[in-house]
Design brief:
343 residues; alpha/beta; six-stranded parallel β-sheet; six-stranded mixed β-sheet; 16% strand
């Protein structure tokens, strides 16, 4: 009869049986009880005994020692912005002798928490992470695991002691409105993704509308899901709502569907409708006409984030825990100049 191979119980198994986190189980079993109640500590020890759990002595011997191993967590690989962020981070990690472990959370909170627990159990030195959302609850798991981390691509809505590298999305959106106003547009629609992660883009658009004295009734804001289908639907609703001369598309993924719908409807850009896209995807550059875009410094974000993380890992004091990266408006042929007609 073949011998049945039993898997060795892990710290994650102990945590699951005790009904707690991997970080708490690790603290209890390594005698670092960090504000853990005696009842919970007893439950963890009982779970370890019931499972026959034995600590990994190799991993324990590495505790407090650098493995030159860093984790990079992003929401998705299909988005070229995150692909470029990873590229920048990987370059800097390699320059400093660190090996990056790259994971996609697919925008799922439970998947993110699971990855973090497993990465910590593998003794990674630190973590570079674009959380699944800007909600503070999104990073509670990593905050509890007592390893250095840097947050990427999310608004500054986390505690002040967090290290964060973010885009100035609000300022960039306001500059987009400024560009359209400078070209004579006063009736501007905005379509975008309904998510806290990109809320500053909507706020920046509203700032521009107010700053330049535009009538909000002439500048409708339509928000929806992050999909091409939603982009197509939003652009139709926006055109039905107001007689706009320009459209500000708040996310490049929505933009694919929106621009395809404009082409299907026979709307000529920029003669009938001027267009700006937040993001600078390849498809926007090869369109005819090529589209004016808000270019995100995505590779720079990965580089700056990894440099910040390595400084923290080496015990250096960063000049600032929060870094805001400027976005660039790339002017192309999709914005019509209406100012001659206004003279």
């Amino acid at each position: 009869m073949p011998r049945v191979r039993r898997n060795r119980p892990t710290l994650k198994d102990v945590a699951a049986l005790a009904g707690t986190s991997v970080a708490t189980a690790s603290n209890v079993l390594s005698s670092r009880n960090k504000c853990v109640s005696e009842a919970l500590a007893a439950r963890v020890r009982e779970a370890a005994e019931a499972l026959g759990y034995r600590p990994n002595m190799v991993a324990r011997s590495m505790k407090g020692k650098s493995r030159n191993l860093v984790a990079v967590l992003i929401p998705e690989f299909w988005n070229p912005v995150f692909t470029k962020i990873v590229t920048g981070a990987e370059r800097v990690a390699a320059q400093h002798g660190y090996l990056p472990v790259i994971c996609s959370t697919e925008g799922d909170q439970r998947r993110q928490d699971d990855y973090l627990e497993r990465l910590v159990s593998q003794q990674v030195d630190g973590c570079l992470i674009a959380p699944v959302s800007s909600d503070i609850r999104s990073i509670q798991a990593i905050s509890a695991m007592d390893i250095p981390f840097v947050l990427l691509d999310r608004p500054f809505r986390f505690p002040s002691n967090c290290f964060v590298v973010a885009y100035d999305m609000r300022g960039a959106a306001e500059r987009g409105v400024e560009h359209l106003v400078a070209h004579g547009h006063t009736r501007i629609g905005f379509i975008g993704w309904d998510s806290p992660s990109v809320r500053p883009r909507v706020e920046g658009f509203a700032d521009g509308v107010a700053k330049y004295g535009l009538d909000p009734a002439d500048c409708p804001v339509m928000l929806g899901e992050l999909s091409r289908e939603s982009g197509a639907d939003l652009v139709c609703r926006c055109l039905e709502t107001a007689d706009i001369t320009a459209l500000f598309i708040g996310h490049h993924h929505l933009g694919e569907g929106a621009v395809m719908e404009l082409v299907r409807m026979g709307v000529a850009m920029p003669d009938q409708l001027s267009v700006i896209v937040f993001g600078n995807p390849t498809w926007a550059q090869v369109m005819s006409p090529a589209l004016t875009c808000i270019d995100l410094p995505d590779i720079e974000m990965g580089q700056v984030g990894m440099e910040l993380l390595i400084k923290v890992l080496r015990g250096e004091q960063p000049e600032t825990p929060r870094i805001m990266l400027d976005c660039t408006l790339v002017s192309r042929a999709s914005v019509k100049d209406l100012t001659p007609a206004m003279r």
